[in-house]
Amino acid sequence: MSQNVTPPPSPMAPTPAPQAPKQKNIVGLIALIVGIVGFVFACIPGALIVGWLLLPVALILGIVALCLRGKSKWAGLVGLILSVVGSIVGGIVFFAVVATAFDDAFDDASGGDTVITEEVTSEDEGASDEEPAATEDDGEAAEKGTRENPVSFDATTENDDWTVTLADFNPDATANVESDGYTTETAGDDQVWITFTPTVTYHGDDSGLAVEVSFAYAAPDGTVINTFDAMAMLDDGFDSAAELYDGGTTTGRIALLVPNDLDGGLLRVTPGILADDVFVSLP
């Protein structure tokens, strides 16, 4: 007769010890704080350098914090992310500041926006209902003062630095120029000396030189004739070397040796070294 033998009780499996909670990551907290401060300074144009100094520190501390075992990771991770995003934002702010500074400097050098003032005559009033000149490309009205839509000879051209007016246009001044003045070239059979009298007034903060305002002739075929291409020294010539302070004015005749067919030709006035060109129709 068999007997049921009860097996001995098996020993109880040991209970796993509970995991200790992760300790605070002091390095991560420092990375987080430095990242926040650096991000804020990176967004302020006048304090960009502070942000650029702090953000790399936050980046290094964030990496170190993530490498520590048994430590909380979230603060180091957030600090690392802030350092990267802050660097990108700081770069955008920096380029925006540089672009604004460059634009302001260029605007100062060019004398600001060029404004054209034309006298309204009875003929102009009668033609005001007509459609404005159109460009060949899109049919829209061309901007005033361009080759496609030149201003009248008696128009006033001005910007923040200069005011320019023209007067006394002579379409055939060859005899007068070559007899009364010194010229580097004489007019050929197909050339003629033209003269006109500009008056320029300076409005800048410091002194300015009249040579900053330039004049040229734009021929119908697209070629440009400058005052230095063929020079004429006139007794009443324009003094381009004149130095002027605010309100100072200089005037005098300018001579240009141009093709004798003036039909379609224009004068070009540039009121400043970097200013916009203004094209003027011949009277």
Please characterize this protein's 3D structure.
The protein has two domains: 85 residues; 167 residues, Immunoglobulin-like (Sandwich). 30% of the residues lie in helices and 22% in strands. It contains five helices and 14 strands. The strands form four sheets. Strands 1, 2, 3, 5, 11 and 12 form a six-stranded antiparallel sheet that branches. The protein has a four-stranded antiparallel sheet with strand order 8-7-13-14, with no helix packed on it. The longest helix has 37 residues. The N and C termini lie far apart (142 Å).
What is the strand and helix layout of this fold?
Blueprint: H1 26-42, H2 48-67, H3 74-110, E1 115-117, H4 122-126, E2 156-158, E3 162-170, H5 174-180, E4 182-183, E5 191-202, E6 208-209, E7 213-218, E8 224-226, E9 232-233, E10 243-244, E11 249-251, E12 254-259, E13 266-271, E14 278-281
Antiparallel strand pairs: 1-2, 2-3, 3-5, 4-9, 5-11, 5-12, 6-10, 7-8, 7-13, 13-14
Helix pairs in contact: 1-2, 1-3, 2-3
What's a concise summary of this model?
The chain is of the alpha+beta class and 283 residues long. The chain has helices spanning 26-42, 48-67, 74-110, 122-126, 174-180; strands at residues 115-117, 156-158, 162-170, 182-183, 191-202, 208-209, 213-218, 224-226, 232-233, 243-244, 249-251, 254-259, 266-271, 278-281. The protein has 2 domains: 26-110; 115-281, Immunoglobulin-like (Sandwich).
